[in-house]
Amino acid sequence: xxxxxxxxxxxxxxxxxxxxxxxxxxxxxxxxxxxxxxxxxxxxxxxxxxxxxxxxxxxxxxxxxxxxxxxxxxxxxxxxxxxxxxxxxxxxxxxxxxxxxxxxxxxxxxxxxxxxxxxxxxxxxxxxxxxxxxxxxxxxxxxxxxxxxxxxxxxxxxxxxxxxxxxxxxxxxxxxxxxxxxxxxxxxxxxx
Length: 192
Prior knowledge:
Layout: H1 2-15, H2 19-41, H3 44-60, H4 71-100, H5 112-131, H6 134-145, H7 150-157, H8 161-178, H9 181-191
Helix pairs in contact: 1-2, 2-3, 2-4, 3-4, 6-8, 7-8
C-alpha cells in the first residue's frame, strides 16, 4: 500500500511539470514495460521505441496524470496498444512487400478454405468476447490474449486470483456454448 502512496505523490509532481519525478517514474517502470513490449514485438529496438513513445505521450499529457486511478493498468494498456500499432505497421509493410512479388497462397502451405474457416472462427470468438461483461472481457484478454500471469492480473486490477479463475470460467463457457460443433468439423478434419 505504501508503494501506491509513493506513486500517487510522483504522479502529482509530474502533473505539475517536475522532470525529476518523471525520471523517477520512468526508472520505476522501464524494465517491466520493456518486458511487456518485447513479449509482443520480439524486437529489442521496436520495444525500446514503444516504451519511449509511451513515456513521451505521458509527458505530453502530464496535466491529466492525476486523473489516472491505476498507473500500472494505464501504462500496461498504453504499452500494449502502442505495441499493436507497431505490429500493424509491420504487417502493412510486409503486405506491401508481398504485393510486389509473385507470391501465391499455396506458397505458404495454406489451404484457402482452412484460412477462411479459421478467420471466421476467430471473428466469431472475438464477437463473443466483445459481448462479455466488461470486467470478464478485460480479465479474459489479459490472461488468454496477452498471456499475463494470474498473479500479475490480480495485482494490476486489485482483485483475487480466485476472481480471475471464476471470470475465465464464465468467459470460456460462453465461448464454448456459442460454437456449434458442426462448424468445427472442417477444423477437426485438418488433423485426421
